Amino acid sequence: MSRPRVLVLSYHLPDDEDVGAFRPWMEVRLLRDLGWRVTVVTARTNYMTGRALDRRPADPDLRILRAPGLVDHRRNLLRRVLHYGLFSVGAFVLAGVATGSCSVVFVGTDPFPLVPLASGLARLKRARLVLDERDLYPETALALGVLRPGAVSRLLGALARRLRRRADHLLVATPGQRRRLRAEGVPEEKLTLLPNADVYLAPDAPPSTSAGDAPLPPLPEGVRRWAVYAGGYGRANDVEFLLDAFAALADCPEVGLLMIGAGEKAPLVARARARGANVHALGALPRRVCRAVLAHCALGLHAYVPIPFFAEALPSKVYDYLAQGCPVLFAGTGDTADLLARSGAGVSVPAGDRAAFVGALRRLLVDEPERLRPLAEAARCWYARSIGYRATRALFARAVDPRIESSS
Known about the structure:
alpha/beta, Rossmann fold, 2 domains, 7-stranded parallel β-sheet, 6-stranded parallel β-sheet, 13 strands, 39% helix
C-alpha cells in the first residue's frame, strides 16, 4: 500500500528552534512518524513576533508552503481580521494550485475563515476532513468581546456547527471542549482528546535530534527563586493580574519574575518595573530555550481573565511547566485547576482574586519555599506517568484516518 498524502492547513507552525505553540509542529511530526507524506500550508511570518520564516525541512516527504499576510497584523483588530482573511484565501489558493491529491485535509481551526475553505478543499480533493479544534469559534471571540452577540455571531455559530457535522473527525484540546461539542450534538466517536502536551517530552518518545540542551539566556543576579510566565500577552491571558500581584512582593528582592512572550500587553511589564516589581522581560524565546528557563524556575504562573468560558481551557504552557518540573500557581477554575489538583503539582485560587494569589505567591516563594520541592516532584512524575508518545501516536493515527494502517 502506498503511503498516504496529508494536506495540513495551519496558520501556526513554529518548530523547536522558533517561538510559539508546539502543537501544530508536534502534529506534523506525528504524521511523519506514521510514515505519511505531508504538505503543510502555513503563514510566512511567526504569529508572535511577526518575523519572516524561511527555514526548510530536510525531510523529503515534508513540504512546507507559506501563504502571505499583512505585516504588523497585531496593531489593531481590523488589521488582524484583514490579515487572517488574506492568509486564509492565500492558503486556499496555494493548497489548490500547488498541491496534488491527498487522502486527508487536516486543518487547525484558528483562524476561523480557514475552516470553510479547508472544507471546500476536502470536497474538491475527495479527502477526509479532520478539524483540530484549538480554539472553539465563535465562542472564544464572544467570550473575549471581539464579537458581539447578535445576528452575525448566530450566523457564524451555525456555520461552525455545520462544518463540524461535515468533518470526518475532530481533535479537541481539553475535556471542556469535548463536553461542549458533545452537548452540541457531535457524536462521541467523532471526537478525540489530544491535550496540549508535547508527547516528544514523554519518556517513551524517540530520541531528540536537536543539538543538545539549550543554554540559559543571561539572567539578573541576586535572585534566589524565580517565578515565570511563558505565553502570549493577548486578550485571554490576564498578564496585568500577574504583574500586579507580583508587585506586592517588591519588598522581597530575593525573588523575581521572568516574563517570556510577546503581544499587545507587553508594555505592562515596563509599568510593573516602574512600580518596583522585580520583573524581567525576556521576550519571545525559541522553544528549546524557553524550556531550559522553565526548568531553572521555581514556580510557573498562569491566569485567565475572569470569564467563565475559560474554565474549559487548558493551555500548553501549563503542560510545559509540568514537563520541566516547574510547579504551577494558577488563578482560575475548571480544567486547569482540575489537572493541578489531580497531579498534586500546583495551587489554584479563584480567577481575579488578587489577595489569594499574592498570599500563595508569598507563601511558596518567600515564607515556605520548602513546599516547592514536593510540588516539583509531583509535576515530573505526573508528566512521565500520564503523557505517552506511543499511546498518543496510536490515537492520533485513528483520528486522522482509521482506514490507513500506520507503517510503524
